[in-house]
Amino acid sequence: MQSSSNPTTSSVSTCTPITSDDSIVISGIAGKYPRSDSVEHFAENLYNKVDLVDDKEDRWRHLYAGIPKRLGKLNNLGKFDAEFFNSGFQETHTMDPQQRLLLEHCYEALLDAGLH
Which residue ranges does the record assign to the Beta-ketoacyl synthase-like N-terminal domain (predicted)? Predict the structure, then answer.
């Protein structure tokens, strides 16, 4: 089978190197950590040697050998400010929960970087 494109005539995109005059740095941090509501709360829990994992079966039953008995669970997974993110009812309820977390954490990182 022959290829329809000829490598000698195809256009190759070139990347322009970023110089220090063109650089953009967003130096904020955000994250979701077990039993912690913020990065600061997570750090406080670590410094105080709080056990952030447990063997409670409040989300998953320990029926399968592949699932560890002790798990770290995230706080407030069901909360999302749809109005703030201009998300309609149907969009919010069909959106992947990981997408909601991504929106929230991108915003938190921007705030942490001082861009508000």
Answer: 22-115
Q: What is the pTM of this model?
A: 0.62
Burial class (CB in 10 A: 0-12, 13-18, 19+), 94: exposed
What are the extents of the domains in the chain?
39-113
> Could you give the residue ranges of the DSSP H alpha helices within 22-71?
39-47
Backbone angle region of 90, left / alpha / beta, with phi > 0 → left and psi within -120 to 50 → alpha: alpha
d(CA 71, CA 54): 6
CA–CA separation, 17 and 19 (whole Å)? 6
Q: What is the pLDDT of residues 65-112, one digit of tens each?
A: 777 888 888 888 888 899 999 999 899 889 988 899 899 999 999 898
**Side chain identity at residue 114, one-letter code:** G
Work out the number of other CB atoms within 10 angstroms of the CB of residue 67. Answer: 10
